[in-house]
Design brief:
The complex is a heterodimer of chains A (108) and B (299). Chain A is mainly β. Chain A is built from two helices and five strands, in the order E-E-H-E-E-H-E. Chain B has a single domain, classed as Thiamin diphosphate (ThDP)-binding fold, Pyr/PP domains (Rossmann fold, 3-Layer(aba) Sandwich). The chains are: A mainly beta (108), B alpha/beta (299). Bound molecules: thiamine diphosphate, iron/sulfur cluster (3 copies) and magnesium ion.
């Protein structure tokens, strides 16, 4: 991390918090099972860490044809703290929480 | 292509230091989605003073001026008047403070700001205790709750005084807009913020923001508990525009308060009789609110 010194007498915080990779806090990893995901974006809506992003419709297979034109969602594991809200709120039960140690390698 | 029910724009970054599952963080995310980038915030001592991370980190992409615990009302008054003097009347000025900073220590500065009629938003994110310093009781802590200063036992009881009704105190200031909201209902919260944005003068919001650390609930239950607070009438959603009440959600068959209480460790000690007492308190408050809606709409 680079420390920026203030140019003027007022200290202004300029380093974005995205320097801080809070993914390291995680005990449970939310994993999206795309074959169940109905692309409703409820997980995106409630994530307290703004760690769910949109991806192209083709990035993942859709459970049915009618859904295939909608954008998909992906979890940014650099920042996801593993709170599990997304899994609890997902109406399709498409998100599973797995113990971080037993999770397979990052999808990055 | 996507169909979203809340704005896509994001002004709160990832990488902040809130506990996992923090409701206050979800509240901030929605407030900035609703008000947009042309906003200046002032935040006193509270969890949100710590959530952006230590200097030189920032987690919001709008200007944020930290202030002392008790003076959010004064800080936003000054920012507003300075901006207006500079001709920047279109900037949203927002005080964003905890329940301790609002119901207790900052109440005087808030009252003065509301009475003077500045064109500001004041948002109380209500996590029902002084969380940042270790879960001490505030005036906004609900009846029956455990906190570290109401630990229960022979000498010191759980909190048995009813929750101070700050939204009602604001209504008594005759300001043009007062509303309650909570994080399980983002569309409702954002619609209210946008309505309020069109109103010139003081606007007050009380946003119930569950706190897994202080309420002793698993972090994945934050949104579910917020929803139950509305479905049980524990925390009714309403707005008061120029003195007229409008209840936003009237549950057809309200769930028993027990369903809300049982998910939270801070209520674990409650006996059946005590739960009955809390249920009665909730029912009485709900009836009083219905009456206020009826009377204020009749005029
Ligand atoms: C005058 C003063 N007294 C006490 C404190 C210590 N203090 C900092 S944050 C805080 C609790 C804030 O509680 P609340 O406003 O409910 O916000 P929360 O931490 O719950 O988000 C206290 C007591 C302080 N900073 N200044
Ligand atoms: S909440 Fe579930 S179904 Fe909806 S977009 Fe997220 S993973 Fe998919
Ligand atoms: S587990 Fe929590 S932090 Fe991670 S993506 Fe889901 S809601 Fe966001
Ligand atoms: S103590 Fe509660 S309000 Fe404070 S950051 Fe943690 S979860 Fe959020
Ligand atoms: Mg608090």
């Amino acid at each position: 991390m680079s420390v920026l010194l203030p140019e003027d007498p007022t200290p202004i915080a300029k380093v974005p918090s995205t320097e801080n990779k809070t993914g390291g806090w995680r005990t449970f990893r939310p994993v999206i099972h795309y074959e169940k995901c109905i692309r409703c974006y409820i997980c995106w809506k409630f994530c307290p860490d703004a760690a769910i992003y949109f991806a192209s419709p083709e990035a993942h297979a859709a459970p049915k044809e009618a859904l295939s034109k909608f954008d998909t969602v992906e979890i940014n594991y650099d920042f996801c703290k593993g709170c599990g809200i997304c899994a609890n709120e997902c109406p399709a039960k498409a998100i599973e929480l797995v113990l971080e140690e037993s999770a397979e390698g990052d999808e990055e | 292509m996507k169909k979203l029910t809340i704005p896509e724009e994001e002004h709160m970054l990832s990488g902040h230091t809130a506990c996992l599952g923090c409701g206050a963080t979800i509240a901030m995310r929605y407030v900035l989605k609703a008000l947009g980038k042309n906003t200046i915030l002032s935040i006193p001592a509270c969890c949100w003073a710590v959530i952006p991370g230590v200097y030189p980190h920032r987690t919001l992409d709008v200007p944020l001026l930290y202030t002392a615990f008790e003076v959010t009302g004064a800080a936003i008054s000054g920012i507003r008047e300075a901006l207006d003097a500079m001709g920047k009347e279109d900037v949203n000025v927002v005080g964003f403070a905890g329940d301790g900073g609002t119901a207790d220590i900052g109440l005087q500065a808030l009252s003065a700001a509301m009475e003077r009629g500045h064109n500001v938003f004041y948002i109380m994110y209500d996590n029902e205790a002084y969380m940042n310093t270790g879960i001490q009781r505030s005036g906004s802590t609900p009846m029956g709750a455990w906190t570290t200063t109401t630990p229960g036992g022979k000498k010191r009881m759980y909190k048995w005084e009813p929750k101070k009704n700050v939204a009602e105190i604001m209504v008594a200031h005759n300001i043009p807009y007062v509303a309650t909201a909570t994080i399980a209902y983002p569309e409702d919260m954002i619609a209210k913020l946008r309505r309020a944005k069109e109103i010139k003068g003081p606007k007050f919001f009380q946003i119930l923001s569950p706190c897994p650390t202080g309420w002793r609930h698993p972090p994945d239950k934050t949104v579910e508990i917020s929803r139950l607070a509305v479905q049980t009438n524990v925390f009714p959603l309403y707005e008061v525009i120029n003195g007229k009440y409008k209840i936003s959600i009237k549950p057809k068959n309200p769930k028993p308060v027990k369903e809300y209480l049982r998910l939270q460790g801070r209520f674990r000690h409650l006996t059946e009789e005590e739960i009955e007492m809390i249920q009665k308190n909730v029912d009485d408050n709900w009836k009083a609110l219905l009456k206020k809606e009826r009377c204020s709409q009749e005029e």
